[in-house]
User: What shape does this take?
Amino acid sequence: MNIVHVVGTGTIGEPLIGLLADHREAFGIDEVTFHKRTPLVTERSKVNDLVRRGAVLCVDDDKRSTFEELGHSPKYETREAIERATVVIDCTPVGLQNKADFYDKALNVRGFMAQGSEFGFGKMYARGINDEALVRGEDRFLHIVSCNTHNIAVLIKTLAMDPDGTNHLTNGEFLCIRRANDISQDSGFVASPTVEKHKDPKFGTHHARDAHGLFATLGYDLNLFSSAVKINSQYMHAIHFSLTLDREITLEEVRDRLASNARVAVTYKRSANQVFSFGRDHGYYGRILSQTVVALETLAIRGGNEVVGFCFTPQDGNPLLSTIAAMLWYLDPDSVDDRMDVLRPYLFREV
Ligand SMILES: NC(=O)c1ccc[n+]([C@@H]2O[C@H](COP(=O)([O-])OP(=O)(O)OC[C@H]3O[C@@H](n4cnc5c(N)ncnc54)[C@H](OP(=O)(O)O)[C@@H]3O)[C@@H](O)[C@H]2O)c1
Assistant: This one.
């Protein structure tokens, strides 16, 4: 019996639980369970809808009666839900703590995943970037890298690496222009552009550090640096990138390479609201599952070997896709590609 358990019902957890429940059959899952920490009347509708779609609610023992007062019928308790699962997907900002408290002791679970903020949880993973680094029976803990790290990684893989793995990147620089908060969130908005510290002396911000770590699982040691600024928008992140290669490249080759990767979308649109709006009308519950949306008309070649441009980051779409791929890999490594078919309509080539 394949049971997938999701911990957390926030910006990442909520769409993930719905996606898993809706595609249970296509993914070969028998049961989808999810843990919600806080009983809230404002979130009753969310829980009810996820349960209507077939997911099973699990709560802490000491919160059970409050959930019941709200009209919910929780089925499993926190630890029980984890221990009976085949795969556990942590979508909280406390994945490392949950690992120490619960996951390390749940020896029968085949695999655990945590999301972007949980550096050190396990081997870094992004679909299409380092699938060959995953080792069956060995990698029980995976860290699905953040949305902007996905974007940086797919640009490098597509534009600076050959299909045989030869790396041509000598320097990669990225300015992450971040939306202040998600449309589902009330807190964390900023009144004006707010710059972030370069906390990491080698990589700047965590985005380049994580992209470096992701490629390190394949034996690369890339020269990367990132900076970040939050802007007063809720729509989408954008990234300005500069990739310097050890060889000449033309704009035509850049466009051909972007067109050759099914996980890359291109666009003639130049505003985040236009791209976001396309996702709302054509994506999976509003989400574009492509790893990047490159603004074609911003591409430029500087000095013959430096590719410069802007792209948009499908912020919760790209980690969702990698999370599903890793979950399927735990269930059956040989059928991942076939089982992902159901999501291909949301991997756009043009936005
Ligand atoms: N937001 C994005 O676009 C995005 C993109 C890529 C990756 N991520 C990553 O996804 C992870 C979650 O981010 P998010 O944006 O989804 O967060 P979020 O919207 O704040 O949701 C957090 C969820 O975790 C639960 N939670 C919080 N603290 C908890 C605790 N101490 N114990 C158990 N559950 C707890 C909350 O439950 P209650 O509300 O019931 O208390 C809530 O359901 C982070 O690692 C983040 O880096 C986010």
Q: What stands out?
A: The domain at 147-316 is CATH 3.30.360.10 (Dihydrodipicolinate Reductase; domain 2). Residues 8-13, 36-38, 91-94, 115-118, 146-147, 182, 315-316, 319 surround NAP (CB under 6 Å). The radius of gyration is 20 Å. The mean pLDDT is 97.
